[in-house]
């Protein structure tokens, strides 16, 4: 099958899964934005997805995302940076990213703010909150008890707009109860920052659970683009 047909079929399936999950949750499909996570896949796939009507694209590594975004600069895309972000990569990431999903520490807020001001632009930031049990290895995101303080910091930072929160389901544990906790965190942030309505949660394997718990943005890689090969380096 030609790649375009394959992507079109996958896109149809994913949109159907989103619509079904919305129906089951009593929500409108229009409330959920699909972000195509194109990491490890070539710019040509991004171009095909754009042709199929995809607007939102997600990447998690700057080395890969920067050249890909540059080669797709003629397309009407919104780039989401969803991976762990080192402060020394902020300058490069803000060259293309419209939304940063992975704000997890004060130093990163400062670096993003400085660069956004330098570029005279507003950058939408989501605070990533950890859903893993405390002390688990490789967890990313701020501890839930520190979420509000970090959200306040983003909201107060020049050049940054607090869009909402983001999370990844815990490894090796059921997604649904974790996403229920996430819904509570989202509500808490919204009670202080009424405009911070984004809840970025749900990947290929758990989009239904995420939508049931109020996700506004789902980040879909495998179900759209196929299996990824391990990346070296
Ligand atoms: C890779 C990735 C995704 C997409 O995961 P799939 O399971 O392939 O859909 C979503 N979010 C983040 C942060 C990712 O790194």
What structural category arises from helix and sheet content? alpha/beta
| Overall geometry | globular
**Domain tally:** 1
What ions, cofactors and ligands are bound? Answer: pyridoxal-5'-phosphate
End-to-end Cα distance: 31 Å
How many helical elements?
9
Average of pLDDT: 96
Tell me about the biggest sheet? 8 strands, parallel
CATH-wise, what's the superfamily? Alanine racemase
Order of helices and strands: HEHEHEHEHEHEHEHEH
InterPro entries: Ala_racemase_N, PLP-binding_barrel, PyrdxlP_homeostasis
Keywords: Pyridoxal phosphate
Pfam families: Ala_racemase_N
Family: Belongs to the pyridoxal phosphate-binding protein YggS/PROSC family.
In short:
The chain has 233 residues and is an alpha/beta fold. The chain is built from 9 helices and 8 strands.
